[in-house]
Amino acid sequence: MHALNTDSLTLAYGDKIVIEELNLSIPKGKITVFIGSNGCGKSTLLKSLARLLKPREGTVVLEGEAIAKLPTKEVAKKLAILPQGPEAPEGLTVLQLVKQGRYPYQSWLKQWSQQDEAAVRRALEVTRMTELQERTVDSLSGGQRQRAWIAMTLAQETDTILLDEPTTYLDLSYQIEILDLLFELNETEKRTIVMVLHDLNLTCRYAHHIVALKNQTVYAQGSPEDIVSCQLVKDVFNMDCQVTTDPLFGTPHCIPYGKGRCIFQKG
């Protein structure tokens, strides 16, 4: 069973078609990464999968059910999304932020419970934010702040997590820290994780499944080893490169051509 499917999905902003008649399956319990040039529809597709954008045509299917027909709280119990560059109100503490992840479970008849408390405590522990829970979100470093937002999504206790460029604007060490955290969540808890990333080499290192978008649809999809090639990089990013093997991880490693202090001639 797939975590998410699309059936002839067409997405648009006004008269501009961004994604057209897309049929896509997201493998359950794996890390899937969307790649593609700027403006190709990666973030738009992610929003549609989370029901934040209504399709012009077609359907998004979540765990076998049309997502448009599910109650909002039911969707929020199955799927969490972290948009790009989220902002918290000034003065909000990490603990207060993470508690917001429990909103799908609250109602007039069911107030804050021991289960809610346990979910928040666990989310803080997994993201290593327990010691920082009383700090305000705006006082944290970039990596800490992103971990706080991920903790909020974990508190929702969903099987599927969508993240739009979770490493953007972070230093390299923070990028690795966040991606390692997501990798551990997938390895230990089999969470389905779907991300938009710009760094192709980090994508190859962490993704089980890559979806490359071009011309309003899927150009190629599959494991990094199966689909990442010089031709893919040329067609999708309009860039010449060499693809070698990462000496540490054995995954595809893209070396782009361009100006610089190159001591070898382009072959």
UniProtKB/TrEMBL annotation:
Top-level taxon: Bacteria
- What keywords does the record list, in alphabetical order? ATP-binding, Cell membrane, Ion transport, Iron, Iron transport, Membrane, Nucleotide-binding, Transport
Question: Is Iron-sulfur among this UniProt entry's keywords?
Answer: no
Q: Which GO terms describe its biological process?
A: iron ion transport
Q: Give the SUPFAM superfamilies listed for this entry.
A: P-loop containing nucleoside triphosphate hydrolases
Q: Which residues form the ABC transporter domain?
A: 4-240
Name a GO CC annotation attached to this entry. plasma membrane
Gene Ontology MF term list: ATP binding; ATP hydrolysis activity
Q: Where in the cell is it found?
A: Cell membrane
Q: Which Gene3D superfamilies match?
A: P-loop containing nucleotide triphosphate hydrolases (3.40.50.300)
Q: How does it sit in the membrane?
A: Peripheral membrane protein
According to UniProt, the name of this protein is Iron complex transport system ATP-binding protein
Query: What organism is listed for this UniProt entry?
Result: Kroppenstedtia eburnea
